[in-house]
Design brief:
By secondary structure, the protein is of the alpha/beta class. It has 2 domains: 127 residues, 3-Layer(aba) Sandwich (abc type-2 transporter like fold); 198 residues, no CATH class. It is built from 15 helices and 5 strands. Helix 8 packs antiparallel against helix 10 and helix 11 packs parallel to helix 15. The longest helix has 32 residues.
Length: 379
């Protein structure tokens, strides 16, 4: 079928591939991982949105309204807040994605056959979750109002029930992103994604490139210390990453009108903390890779799950529980919460301390492990 020369080239290439088993395993494993993630994580079918309730009425009627939202498949009552300030704090921290405020006198107005108004607050920083919550809040309120109207019809007759008007008036408020503009959600997240992709791939290939060219041995025999070599190799990529970050912020404001409501210095400091983590990952990949091709494939193999499990494209609330649990091992998850919180919500470090602590732990552990392994490879 093939001439002898062509068969020899094909045989040679297969031998080369088999001699690099790690790259071969990654090549076959990557489609399976993509299929797994796209099958389970790629969904916008949001359920169990965390709901905080401010019940100032504390009557049987208010508890019935809360129960109706709890019974809906879209909400999960997680917090019983004492005030609107506490509700705002829960939403700012990302612990609650929606809030129900029941004013005093709600039960009295229901019993009197009057229209009782409630306020439903929605975190609009994630348009996908917010759209689902907005529609579900209105539908649930209408269903409860219809049930109460039927009861009034049975007790007082059609004429009296019609004059009373709707039983419940659900007034929705969307915070942070009232128009549910997707760019406000995606542009800040691009900062984290680009920082991770850039630093991991460039760092992993840069050090392996030195080894492939044989220049790593020349660096070893010089008086330079291992930590100086690491810092010297990583510093240019840190500078490039920060320049790219500034470019994204400027372009986001000028082209898409993304509001920056928080502290830019705080964002830069926490971006630096995130960079320590991603640089450590790239350095670690460089210590386990023999070629630039292997380093690139390994970096892509790590980056792909990060996109799906960090909440960049798809809401974490829509994922199966085991994937939500796995997402806690993804550093990008925490940085996306940080950058969206600072840019869209204008929150400070006090509201982001769980994410800051998590990134600090990742940075220390990953960079420490990468530095130790890199030092051993030099020895």
């Amino acid at each position: 079928m093939f001439n002898p020369r062509l068969r020899a080239v094909i045989r040679k290439e297969f031998i080369q591939i088999v001699r690099d088993p790690r790259t071969l395993v990654l090549t076959f494993a990557m489609p399976v991982v993509q299929l797994f993630l796209l099958g389970y994580a790629a969904t916008n079918d949001v359920r169990n949105i965390d709901l905080a309730v401010v019940d100032r009425d504390r009557t049987a009627q208010s508890r019935a309204l809360v129960a109706s939202y709890q019974a809906a498949d879209y909400f999960r009552v997680r917090f019983d807040a004492d005030s609107e300030a506490e509700l705002r704090d829960l939403v700012d921290r990302g612990r609650a994605r929606a809030g129900l405020i029941i004013p005093p006198g709600y039960g009295r107005r229901i019993v009197a056959g009057e229209t009782a108004g409630v306020v439903f607050v929605i975190d609009g920083s994630d348009p996908t979750v917010a759209s689902t919550a907005l529609a579900a809040a209105q539908l649930t309120g209408q269903a409860e109002a219809t049930e109460l109207t039927v009861e009034r019809l049975a007790r007082r007759g059609a004429a009296a029930a019609a004059m009373a008007g709707p039983a419940i008036d659900v007034r929705t408020q969307v915070w942070y992103n009232p128009d549910l503009v997707s760019a406000y959600y995606m542009v800040p997240a691009l900062i984290g994604l680009i920082l991770q992709f850039l630093t991991i791939i460039l760092t992993a290939t840069a050090i392996v490139r030195e080894r492939e060219r044989g220049t790593i041995e020349q660096l070893i025999v010089t008086p330079i210390r291992p930590w100086e070599l690491v810092v010297g190799k990583l510093t240019p990529y840190v500078v490039i990453a920060f320049i790219d970050m500034v470019e994204i912020l400027v372009a986001g404001v000028l082209l898409f009108g993304v509001p920056i409501n928080g502290s830019l210095p705080l964002l830069l400091v926490l971006a630096g903390l995130f960079l320590v983590t991603t640089l450590g990952i790239g350095l670690f990949i460089s210590t386990i890779s023999s070629t630039q091709q292997e380093a690139t494939i390994t970096a892509i193999f790590f980056n792909l799950p990060s996109i799906f499990l960090s909440g960049f494209f798809f809401p974490l609330a829509a994922m199966p529980p085991f994937l939500q649990l796995l997402s806690y091992a993804i550093p990008l998850r925490y940085f996306l919460i940080i950058v969206r919180g600072i840019v869209l919500k204008g929150v400070g470090a006090a509201a982001l301390w769980p994410e800051i602590v998590a990134l600090t732990v990742f940075a220390v552990v990953i960079m420490g492990a990468a530095a130790l392994r890199f030092h051993k490879r030099l020895d």
